[in-house]
Amino acid sequence: MKVLKFGGTSVGTVENISNVKNIINDGNKKIVVLSAMSGTTNSLVAIANCIANNLPNEAIDKINKLHELYFDTIDKLLVDESLNKEVKNYVTEIFNFLVACTYTEFSVQLENKIVAQGELLSTFIVNSYLNQEGLQSVILPALSFMRIDKNKEPDFFYIKQDFQAVFNAAPEATIYITQGFICLNEEGQISNLQRGGSDFTATIIGAVIKAEEVEIWTDIDGMHNNDPRYVDNTKPISNLSYDEAAELAYFGAKILHPQTVTPVRADNIPVRLKNTMNPEAFGTLINNNHTENGVKAIAAKDKITAIKIKSGRMLLAHGFLRKVFEIFEVYETSIDMITTSEVAISLTIDDDTNLDNIIAELEKFATIEVDKNQAIICLVGHSIVNHQETFKLFQILKDVKIRMISYGGSRNNISLLVNSKDKIKTLGKLNDYLFELVTL
Ligand code: ADP
Ligand code: ASP
Ligand code: MG
Q1: Where does a domain end: 176, 203, 219?
Q2: Which of 165, 184, 219 marks a domain boundary?
């Protein structure tokens, strides 16, 4: 059985929902994971922010606008009168709940409940539409089986057991629809798998059912060789290894949630990226195969903070790195890039929630310099560090100030740290020159 995940754009318009129907209507049993309709999660986050900032009227305004938008879509999608009414009732209940939230004291728990509504809305609406069109689909409620543990990792023990139970309860269905992104935490409260998490939902389920394949259907024909939001003339890549896909996703290729390939790589379950608006395009196949050497793709991750830790005592001292790392561990902050010299360490973090505490601890034994607003530019390709043209990178980027470089951490990745304001220029230069050079 396959798992097919459809992102926000794919379920964002009547036309695209009809494309989804055509893609899934091949008679084979399948699991379908849906995101919230495009823009909905952003709106829900904005509503939660209004509540957090004590702006209930603004929140209600946003809720009403979204409510109208949903009624509009429902009228276009559901021509069957009784289904139309049933869906509007369901949707109204959700919007009433959101209005009630504006009278409630803000908490992270409240925010999690608010942002979870997007996937509940989209799955109910799309499932009703599929039923109207004669498809045998049912909803498997994600909150009945999808769980994370105290480390925010999927709790496979429960997921396996509870997924089987809800799945077996509906043996007659052909299409099993479930909500991406949302889950319960270890205390049974509503939580989520972080923004873009529906991709992760799909591969978690893929791993649990040992799926034949996981397909991620989105609004572009696969992983491109550079970020299409910032660079023109990017091209789709037909094959990526799990390692390459993981590096690109982690370092900013928005098409995939950073953890997407983790659950499926051990069982070599292929992940295919496809375009809902252009299903004939090959897309990208991610599996264990390594193809060709050289740079395959470039991604960029913003909002990076660089920390330089300088200490005279580092000279010839062992145990210094351990001391530094322990501080980051205490504050649950992961380090992305790291370089060392005899007198200093430079490292980067993307979560600066605990930055002040970390600096205070480090300052007990070192001098600290912090640079915010940095961007990691990540070049990915199998064995790229050994490729004969890779050295030209520095020639190409001679006009860009590179703050740090990480080379050789893995054979498949070279990462550069630049100021965020140089990100687009750097991506553009790499696009114009490097792809040309590596194909010489
Ligand atoms: P969905 O809502 O379907 O999950 P996303 O917006 O999360 O879609 O991901 C698709 C978007 O990712 C594309 O529209 C594109 O703008 C962006 N993107 C960023 N980097 C890449 C890349 N290297 N290849 C393809 N798309 C990328
Ligand atoms: N709806 C969620 C988001 O916008 C999850 C997803 O789309 O994957 O982040
Ligand atoms: Mg996404």
Answers
A1: 219
A2: 219
- Say which CATH number the domain at 368 has: 3.30.2130.10
Domain that holds residue 356: 297-435
81-96 per-position pLDDT tens digit: 999 999 999 999 999 9
C-alpha span between 86 and 421 (Å, rounded): 50
pLDDT recorded at residue 204:
98
Tens of pLDDT, residues 406-419: 988 888 889 999 99
Calpha distance 310→321 (Å, rounded): 12
Q: 308 CA distance to ligand 1 centroid (A)?
A: 33
What average pLDDT does range 423-439 have in this prediction? 79
The C-alpha atoms of residue 47 and residue 37 are separated, in whole angstroms, by: 16
What residues does ligand 1 touch, defined as CB less than 6 Å away? Answer: 7-10, 35, 196, 218-220, 223-224, 227-229, 253-255, 299
Q: Is 7 in the pocket of ligand 2 (CB under 6 A)?
A: yes
CA 318–ligand 3 middle distance (angstroms): 43
Q: For tokens 């893609």, name the residue.
A: 23
